[in-house]
Structure formats: structure tokens, C-alpha cells
UniProtKB/TrEMBL annotation:
Annotated localization: Membrane
Protein's recorded name: AI-2E family transporter
Topological type in the membrane: Multi-pass membrane protein
Alphabetical list of Pfam families matching this protein: AI-2E_transport
GO BP terms: transmembrane transport
Cellular compartments per GO CC: membrane
Assigned protein family: Belongs to the autoinducer-2 exporter (AI-2E) (TC 2.A.86) family.
Transmembrane segments: 6-28, 40-65, 120-143, 178-200, 206-234, 241-263, 275-302
Signal as UniProt keyword: no
Alphabetic keyword roster: Membrane, Transmembrane, Transmembrane helix
Amino acid sequence: MLVLVLFIYLAREALLILLLAIVISSALDRLVLLLERFKIPRLLGTLMIFIAGISIVTALLYTIFPIAILEFTTLLEKIGTITDGRIETSSLAQIINTITPNLNNLAKLLLSGTASFTEVIATIFGGIFSVVSVLILSFYLTLSRDGVGRFLRAIFPPMIEEYTLDIYYRVRRKIGRWLEAQMFLGFVVGLITFFGLWILGVPYALVLAFLAAFFELVPVVGPIFAGAVGVVIAGTESLTLALYTFLLFLIIQQVENHIFFPFVMRKAVDLHPVIVLISLLAGGKIAGLVGIILAVPLAVAAQEILEDWMKRKDKLREQGKLA
């Protein structure tokens, strides 16, 4: 047991790369299967999806992201001005002082137009080798029919092979539905937020829209935080604008909670908000951005294993009573 723990600790970076590749492959496999229904060969379908995905991310990185990053750095500087030096020793001040130079470097890299896709992604995630490794691993796992399943069969002993695969397939279905629902909600909320703030004339509308879309992943707390930031920024212009911004976010949340959320989540997985929130916080603390990406899949896997264990426990109790 001690040897296993030591191995996991020493190989933690490689294991994170592998887990991230498995999550990406599991998400893309649904799209590849959809293309196969239209008689598109798996190799061609996988290439199409990866090329399209990299092209979309590259287009965003070199068009919208530089503007958003510059706006965000200006916003951070403005927050520092608003506080008037009263938080110099606080964690917020440390965060602002740490993030701002890094974002400025990333913005300069993007605006220069000379950086490659891998260089930009490596700046965000850290390490070109890690980025290339994730892309290659996820590509080959997606290319092979049930590639992740075959990989799991190869590394797990026969006694737990079928159980491991059963857990994986259930988790993949859950995560697929949850991710699709969250992406849809994030896109819709971000789009509505941007146009609403733009019409009202709120500064940094693009950044605030990105925040609103991103924090849709964080249940309960995320939308409240995004709305609070928007109201504070609008308040630097006028109290009237802050009030209109508050009403805008309130309307968006009501529409989302009573129309979009029930309609979308009805077909999605029932993930308890507390589990999602705790897993995101823990993942971010342990492994940063990669940890946030892996947090929910690992939490769902743990939930599935726990539910199975509880069912088996109840079954044993029933058998004991019958005996």
C-alpha cells in the first residue's frame, strides 16, 4: 500500500496527463460515434473533430481572448484603485499582483501573432510537453474504438476488470450529459449577459460575460459571484447603472432557474450542487486548472463507487435477515 502511494506521488504529473486525456477522449467519443452514424470512418471523424476543435480554440485565442484579457487586467487594476490601497496585505491584493503580470504577458503573446498554438496553451496550462502529451494521448484513445475501455482492460487485473469498465461507462454517460448541459447553459447565459451589459453600457461587458459563462460551472455561488462583480463595476459609473445591472442579472437568473435549467437538466445527470462545489474547490487547490477540469469526473466516479458499495451493503443485510 505504501509503495502504491509513493508511486502515485512520484508519477502524479504523468497520471494527471493520463486522466485529462481520458476525460477529453471520453467527451469526444460521443461526437465520433455521431459521425460514424453518417458513414464517416472513425479515423476521418477523429481528425475532423480534433482539427475543428484546435481551429476553434486557436481562433478564440487570437481574436476574442486578447481583448478579454486586456479588459480583465484593466479591471483588476481598477479594483486596486477602488480599494485605495486598503487591501495591500490581503489575499486579494496578492492575487491581483500575481495575476496581472501573467495576463499581460499572455495578452502580448497573443497580440504579437508569432506564438504557436502549443506555446499559447502551454502558457495557460504550463509546459509544452504536457500539452502535446495530452493531445497525442487523447487522439489515440479517441481513434481506437472504445480506446479507454481497452486501456482499462490492459491495466486492471481480471478480478475487477468488468466492475471497473462498468463504473467507467456509467461515469462517461453521466459526465457527457452533465458537460453538454453545462456548456449549453454557460453559452446561453454568457451571450445574454454580454448583450444585456452592452445595451446598458456597462464597462468590461465581454469580460463579465465570460465570467458569467465560466461560473455557471460552480453551482449556487458562481452566478451570485458573477452578478456581484457586474454590479460593483457598474457602480463605479453610477448607482442607477448598478441598479439596472442588478435587475439584469436577477432576470437572467430567474429565466435560467425556471426555464433553461429544468429543461436542460431534465435530460442531464443528477449531480448534487454541494458535490460539484466541493470537488471544484478541492481540484483547484490540489492541481490548479487541470484539477478543476478533472474534479467533476473524479467526483462522479467516487459517487458511483460509493452508491455501488451502499447497494451491496444493503443486499448483504437483506440476505442476512433472510438467513
